[in-house]
Automatic annotation (TrEMBL):
Keywords: Methyltransferase, Transferase. Residues 237-261 are annotated as: Disordered. GO terms for biological process: methylation. Coiled coil: none annotated. This is SAM-dependent methyltransferase. GO terms for molecular function: methyltransferase activity. It comes from Streptomyces plicatus. Its EC number is 2.1.1.-.
Amino acid sequence: MTEIDTSVPHSARIWNYWLGGKDNYPVDEAAGDAYTAVFPGIVTIARSSRAFLGRAIRYLVLEAGVRQFLDVGTGLPTVDNTHEVAQRHAPESRIVYVDNDPLVLAHARALLTSTPEGVTAYEDMSLFEPERILEAAARTLDPSRPTALILSGILGHVEGHDRARDLVRRLMAGLPSGSYLCVNDGSRGTDPDYEAAQDGYNETGAVPYFLRPVAEIEAYFDGLELVDPGVVSVPLWRPDPSPDGTAPRPVGQHGGLARKP
């Protein structure tokens, strides 16, 4: 297995740190702290993204009747992972996680357990090999049944919007009618401070993450039927009632959910 390099910060481990997880190293905490010193709002974005994912999965299970999930670019397990939310509402749900990071692999095998009625599997491969992903997923998921493809915070790592769109298209092409696409990613046009912080981070030599205009995030859903309210800043997508009655505030992270006709 590939060695885990603890000498340079890693985006999945930094994200884990921001979400309050423990699967990170001092170099990741230092990078995360340096980022939050420039832009404290990144922690809100990380947690808003995770909350959006939870609401989207809840919709898929309870309203769309989906029982199969393909989560590509899983990242490190934290709280309310895809299988936990899905199986909480439908214990028979089957989930395939895909990532190619050795630290994610090590933790996924230990932590991504399943209900007795369902299945949780892990495939060690890259987003850049969509046909292999679909072939591997078919070992766990029924290719004839609707599946929800989850791409949470991963497409920003793809350099070139056309390439990212092509990867989405190829993955969705292998899923049957009635399947869903769930995407959320960092966006431009909402928070200039976030954009400045992320552009600065990309210039440090770390693995870059590209924020994209909302129109480019919307384009991932071309040919699909968007679920209301469409592609919006993630706190605004079907928000749960706030305990204190305050309205959710937009952040520089947009997402949506759409059905394949």
